[in-house]
Amino acid sequence: MILTAELIYALTGVGLFGMGLRGALLRRSLLGRILAINICGAGVFLLLVAISYTGPGVAPDALPHALVLTGIVVAVSATALALALGRRLRETARE
Amino acid sequence: MGIQLWLMLDLVLSGLALGLGWAAVSSRDSQRSVVFFIAFGLLLAIIWARLNAPDLALAEAAIGAGLSGVLLLSALRDEPAAAAAGDMIRGPKALLVTLLSLALTALFAWVLLQTLDVADKVRMADQIAAQLPNSGVTNPVTAVLLNFRAYDTLLELAVLLAAVLGIQALGPARPPYRAAGPLLGGLIRWLVPLLILTAGYLLWAGAHAPGGAFQAGALLAAAAVMLRLGGDPDAGLPRPRVQRLLLVAGIAGFLLVGIVTTAIYQSFLNYPDGWSGGLILLIETAATLAIATTLALACIGGRPAGWEPAESGAVPTRQRESK
Amino acid sequence: MLDLFGISLIFIGIGFYAAGSIGLLRLPDIYSRLHALTKADNLGLGILCAGLALLNGGLLYAMKLLLVWLLVLAASATTSHMIAQQALRRETN
């Protein structure tokens, strides 16, 4: 098992996914859970980009890059929606 | 020697990523977690740059670290302090969850190790490189986003629109900030025009260099957020009617081009030869405006003043008074 | 020769960043921490950019790095001022 850059970052991505999953299940506050799910997402992105890396000078595989680019933007807008939902839940719970 | 140095860099970066991710997920209070998450976003941008993904590095630095940070910090303002401390569930249930997620992670890692070597390296990279001269641009990521997989980008813009409509429907915007003092006001006065200029450059350069609609839209949204942090409650956005037009501009651009190409060529979004570059730039411009307005409204956090308030069917009257 | 100079400048810049980080971790209150951070931000980044410009050569590249440094200077000065002002306001209340 040669320790390539692909392998290191792909394993890091898997590890981040696991951490995020544990955090999403165990945190109490909504903000904490949203952060944990974002970390899950970041792990998945890292995995995608790691397997598309083809070496130092060579052009990488552009298709996973495009997927991750749309993923980053969608993740931040989903986070914004989740935070707005949380705010609204708190307001309705208060009355 | 060079390989060893790169390996050390990779080990350091991935170790830092795991450490920051752990800190963001298992910190005692939410404020710490948010700050660690912003730092994690910046580190991720560096990792993208190391993995030969400059487009992603630009987008992650602007969106993942910048806009995400603003979003989370302003959400932190609303979060009551009592809920912030003592955040993780502890006890036997927590141990079970930890063991199960560890097992799942190990399973994924094992699958990864099996498939990483065995997988036939049939990658799209060769096909993309072969078709790149026909696509109208020379940046492969832009070619994939706006030519080869243009339909996916159209649907992704629709997802952004759905998210921002949801945010608008959920309530009024967060309270505005205090007007900027001389120092922040001066910085904003210099940075906002520079951001707009850089966004225009990234939009243009996306055809042949790292850049494109998403990065440019993110920079424009950052300019809007800076204006809002300096006290402007509308974040420099135009009137609500124009905002609505801007929000749908990306999808409208795609659909317009798609309908015209369907009418002429009987296939949706099949750009005619020689027109690809121009059509891609047109769609990217519309998409930049749409993404910028979407992200700015997402960071504002609700309906800005001037949009019609929700009518009595949707929102109970007591809610409107609790501003 | 120029390469060696550039690399040594980069290492000096890293040294400033290390000093700033140690200051952030060890100094007692927020004002002294801000003071330590400006060393990292302004001087460290400036020396780092100078080293990078020497390593890469090219006037355009050096001008871009200069612009980056100036922007970071402006942003870090503004944010340090605002953080200090907020901390002072919180203390006097």
Describe this structure as you would to a colleague:
The complex is a heterotrimer of chains A (95), B (323) and C (93). Helix content of chain A is 81%, strand content 0%. In chain A, helix 2 packs antiparallel against helix 3. Chain A is mainly α and 95 residues long. The radius of gyration of chain A is 17 Å and the shape is elongated. Chain A is built from three helices and no strands. The C terminus of chain B is likely disordered. Chain B has 13 helices and no strands. In chain B, helix 9 runs antiparallel to helix 10. Chain B has a domain of 176 residues. Chain B is mainly α. Chain C has 93 residues and is mainly alpha-helical. In chain C, helix 1 runs antiparallel to helix 2 and helix 2 runs antiparallel to helix 3. In chain C, 92% of the residues lie in helices and 0% in strands. The relative contact order of chain C is 0.15. The mean pLDDT of chain C is 90. Chain C is built from three helices and no strands. Chains in contact: A-B, B-C. At the A-B interface, helix 1, helix 2 and helix 3 of A face helix 1, helix 2, helix 3, helix 5 and helix 6 of B.
Number of domains of chain C: 1
Determine the most extensive contact between two protein chains.
A-B, 73 and 90 residues
CATH topology of chain A: Helix Hairpins
Which stretches of chain A are low in confidence, meaning pLDDT under 50 for 5 or more residues running? none
Category from helices, strands and their pairing of chain A: mainly alpha
- Named at the architecture level, the CATH assignment of chain A is Orthogonal Bundle
Q: What value does the average pLDDT of chain A take?
A: 91
The outline of chain A comes out as elongated
CATH class value of chain A:
Mainly Alpha
Order of helices and strands of chain C: HHH
Q: Could you tell me the strand content of chain C as a percent range?
A: under 5%
Helix content of chain A: over 70%
Anisotropy-based shape of chain C: elongated
Alpha plus pi helix count of chain C: 3
Tally of helical runs of chain A: 3
Number of strands of chain A: 0
Radius of gyration of chain A: 17 Å
Main sheet attributes: strand count, strand direction, barrel closure of chain C: none
